[in-house]
Amino acid sequence: LTSKLPDVGTSIFSVMSQLAAECGAINLAQGFPDYDPPQALTEALARHARTSGHHQYAPMPGLPRLREAISHKTAAVYGVAAPNPDTEITVTSGATEALYAVLAAVVRPGDEVLVLEPAYDLYGPAIRLQGGTPVYVPLRVPEFTPDWDQVKAALSPRTRLVMINTPHNPSGAVLSAQDMNTLAELLADTNAFLLSDEVYEHMVFDGQRHHSALQVPALAERSFVLSSFGKTYHATGWKVGYCIAPPALTAEVRRVHQFLTFAVSTPAQHALADVLADAEQYRTLPAFYQQKRDLFVGLLQASRFELLPVPGSYFALARYHQVSAEGDAAFAQRLTRECGVAVIPVSAFYHDGLDQGLIRFCFAKRDETLRLAAERLCRV
Ligand code: PMP
Ligand code: GLN
Q1: Which cofactors does it use (predicted)?
Q2: Which of 149, 224, 356, 374 is deepest in the core (most CB within 10 A)?
């Protein structure tokens, strides 16, 4: 078989998690918490698992009661008109499936898709599998903010889709209201759609706010906005996410979704519908993760790692030039083996493997895990 993705290896997240397991290292590499979802959610899942009739296919677009809960929550959080659960919300197998379904629905051979780099590792390959051409625009280091003039210059009549991710993986950068307005102005003259990956929407710190594409009408009308319950409820293994888009766009996403996964786990959707009306989890998430950020960043002050500011997400980037002159991939491997802390090399988020001597830590870990990891990191 001739590979359709000959240049793509196994995802860095799998590679580093496997290495961490082999070495018995603390896994600050792949992004997932080492604590469980809120008890109300796990109890709800257990309840629905015991309920007869909750074990067969859910409706293709998602359980109506979950889509209604998503609609209410979206309106309450962003102060926008409630998205129509019947025509504007689709529940997907994580944001991953939503990303793929949107790209498959929108991108035709020869289309260009504008991607800001560093970017989540699936964006480029998923675009190329649709016959699209990713057009990469680098974010400005070290703030990882977009240079909108460069974005403007990269737009062409063939640009079918622009992809943004705020808060940003891996940098934690958060787009401002001004950024969103600028983007709306740039797209006003185009026929491009927007995919706004907002899976870390509730992880923004220091009193700042997340600005959703849903809050800018000129963007919302051309946007697919994605989120993930995996991030917000410490349940990455449940693989439940969703896509909000205007009716005509949602119809196209569902055309793909119905043949990709058809529907999402029924008991998981029921459990999430039970807890979503309670705002406690997402209201407290910024403070929850800010405490972890501050703990981790504070502990690493005593190390030779130079941490970059972390405005959002549960990731922190660090320069390691005082520790080693190695490339980031080699350094990440050695840190895992010799120091017992696994991390992600940031070059994995660049299509050409651009190495800027940066590694990514995930701080979605129990305080004692962070303390133990920091102790080890302070010794190198
Ligand atoms: N987008 C980004 C930016 C992510 O970091 C992730 C999670 N790693 C996803 C999408 C995928 O989310 P999910 O786990 O819900 O599939
Ligand atoms: N999004 C997570 C990360 O960036 C990992 C997801 C995955 O393993 N595919 O670490």
Answers
A1: pyridoxal 5'-phosphate
A2: 224
